[in-house]
Structure formats: C-alpha cells, structure tokens
Amino acid sequence: MENGTRYFCRLTEDEKLNVLDSLERSGSVRMMANVLKGNFSDLATSASKDVRAKYARWQEVTRKWQVIEAEWGEGALLKLNDPVFVDLRAKGLLNSDIIRNAEAYAAAHSGLPEFNTPSAL
C-alpha cells in the first residue's frame, strides 16, 4: 500500500454468517460487537428471515457477553485454545491481561458443561 490505497472486499451473507459463527466459537466479544454494528449490520435487513433471526441472536449474545466482560475483564470469554489465539500467544502478541482474564473466567466456569459450547448464554 505504497500510495495509501485501501482495499475492501465484499462478503456474501453466507461468508458473514461464517465469520460471526467463528467469532462466537472463539469468544471474540469485541470483534463480534464491532462487525455487528459495522459492515455486517446489513444482515438485520436481509431478505432471509433465518439470517435476520441469526443476526438478532448474535446481537443478544454479544450484549450478554459484554456484561460478562464488564465483570471479568476484557477477553474473559476468549477460547485461548482457538488456533488464532494460540498463534498470537506464541508470538507474544496477546495482551497478558486478556490472557489472565480468559484463564480466570475459564477456570471459574470449566465445570459447567455448557461452557464449552457456543452460545451457552
């Protein structure tokens, strides 16, 4: 990007749903909140009733998760065994406070069977 040109790609609804599913499975609360408010907000007005319902559910999940992160700290819901976070951690690119918050929350909730499933909330 020598001249400062920015490149954007347009994602299909299915691609957006896949991204949101991945973010949910990894516990990426802030990223989910950002994409739901930003480039993925068009899913709220999709022609598909199913897509609109999934979008509404993800909004609710995000709201609930934000409450948990407000109590436990940023990154509390991250699944540190997710390959992205394993890689970031190995490279020293994952904030130590976030790691601590995620480990503390996981330790406190690891006995709950629903903790290891997406959207247990």
Report the uncertain regions: none
- Number of domains in the coordinates? 1
Give the CA-based shape.
globular
From the N-terminal CA to the C-terminal CA, the straight-line distance is 42 Å
Integer average pLDDT? 89
Helix and strand composition category: mainly alpha
Helix and strand element order: HHHHH
Q: Largest sheet, if any?
A: none
Q: Name the helicity range.
A: 55-70%
Rg (C-alpha, Å): 16 Å
Subunit arrangement of the protein: single chain
Number of helices: 5
Strand content: under 5%
Let me know the number of strands. Answer: 0
Describe this structure in words.
With 121 residues, the protein is mostly helical. The chain has one domain (13-116). The protein has helices at 13-26, 29-37, 49-72, 83-90, 96-109. The termini are far apart. The mean pLDDT is 89.
Question: What is the element layout, followed by pairings?
Answer:
Blueprint: H1 13-26, H2 29-37, H3 49-72, H4 83-90, H5 96-109
Short recap of the structure:
By secondary structure, this protein is mostly helical.
Summary keywords:
single chain, 121 residues, mainly alpha, 0% strand, globular
